[in-house]
Amino acid sequence: MNLVERLTHDLGYPLLADHVALAAFAEQQDNSVIFLPANPQHYPETLDVAIVLPELMRIFSGRMQAGVADVNFARELAGKYNITEWPALLFLRHGAYLGSIARMRDWGVYLSKINALLAAPVPVKAPGIGIPVVGVMS
């Protein structure tokens, strides 16, 4: 069993394989963090984040719930939320986008960014896929 599988098997984080499972989980939570893993052979930081996530959950106990996106679904979520670096943590409030943290970060960066995200008064507009809209002025 690898470190990512440990999150679901040993720690009981739900494995989310599609939007239905994500909605069923995240919409019930005040705040949730969804781990978007990548293939650890290509993105070794995936294993580092898999180790850090349970520690973050202990620090923020009661303030958020964790889930793990299936690797294939993680790619789909990354496209939806314009996440371009792997692995990533996606933060949602009642299923609405709060923000994300990509790649492995220093402990202090995790703490300050997560505190800021959890303190945000309302979810923000999801970034989408980043295609600019250009109009013609008459």
TrEMBL record:
| Signal peptide limits | none
- Where does the chain cross the membrane? none
Q: At the top level of its lineage, which domain of life is listed?
A: Bacteria
Which family does the UniProt entry place this protein in? Answer: Belongs to the HupG/HyaE family.
Name of this chain's protein: Hydrogenase-1 expression HyaE
